Amino acid sequence: RAKESGRNQLQFYEAAMHSRIAERTMIEAELRHALARDQLRLHYQPKVDLRTGAVVGMEALLRWQHPTLGMVSPARFIGVAEETGLIVEIGRWVTRTACFQNMAWQQAGLTPLRVAVNVSARQFRDPGLRREVQAALSDSGLDPRYLELELTESLVMHNVDGAVAVVKELKRMGIALSIDDFGTGYSSLAYLKLFPVDYLKIDQSFVREMLTEPKVAAIVRSVIALGQSLGFKVIAEGVETEAQLAYLRRHQCDDMQGYLFSKPLPADGFGELLRSERGLAPAPGETPADQQTLLL
Ligand code: C2E
Ligand code: MG
Ligand code: MG
Ligand code: MG
């Protein structure tokens, strides 16, 4: 029986492995055509100032709408795009699309906001990155201060000297930078001071657990204090509840992003949200921002 079940298990693993390989192969083959077939879109998620309640920026998040696979989540294809190198071309499209869209909102008379784009390790190492970002800015006409690049912690900590040099060049161009998923990789605090970035983004795994795990809460409070004392602004990702919002406000986190305020929206939906000037209610004791703010 043990032998039998062992064999069944092995067959199960083999089948699972084959289907994983098959899925990967299929995703890879399909992804090669995704751009040319116009299957990629960007969704935009607002970033909100916790003190004033105003929308202060947005993150562009990639979506792949495939005719038969349906909506494929970035978790399933970003890794494949990285390994095959397709991410370089896709990333270029993402940066350009985000710049042009942001410029279109500004030209439509909306308050200028910063758009953040995620940059993967492969793109970051690509020697053409700076030139391509520059081209996206000049072709769209977007002022560099309205573009932000999000770099993950593991990306910048992997080769610190190289990363510091690239980050400094990008900063000199006038672009904002943030360290994404902060706390999930390993960061040497000594290295953190070398990066002239604007934001630390507290990873959503901490936000999710901070109200039930006292040690996680301690980490969140420490990251807020550490980040701010090093001159960064701190933003919390994945805020889903009023209680999380209240906790982050109490501990003076700067900004937040999460389903509580809004899921990532297609460009037209995001434009409507901006036009409605919907914000969070300001923190108690704060004067409302000079725009209409509504309770959630
Ligand atoms: P990320 O950059 O850390 O983005 C945040 C993720 O959290 C997004 O998932 C977002 O939809 C999700 N999120 C936001 N608020 C909440 C919330 O309140 N609760 C929960 N549970 N989730 C929330 P998404 O869009 O699936 O993207 C996943 C990851 O894929 C991103 O993580 C980023 O690493 C990568 N990614 C997405 N778009 C791009 C892109 O254009 N280029 C690159 N290189 N990577 C991208
Ligand atoms: Mg991000
Ligand atoms: Mg993140
Ligand atoms: Mg994340």
Automatic annotation (TrEMBL):
Gene Ontology process terms (BP): cellular response to nitric oxide; phosphorelay signal transduction system
Superkingdom per UniProt: Bacteria
Residue span, EAL domain: 24-278
Keyword Phosphoprotein found: yes
Signal sequence range: none
Record keywords: Phosphoprotein
Alphabetized GO MF terms: cyclic-guanylate-specific phosphodiesterase activity
Annotated TM spans: none
Protein name in the entry: EAL domain-containing protein
Species of the source: Duganella vulcania
Interval of the full protein contained in this chain: 671 to 966 of 1099
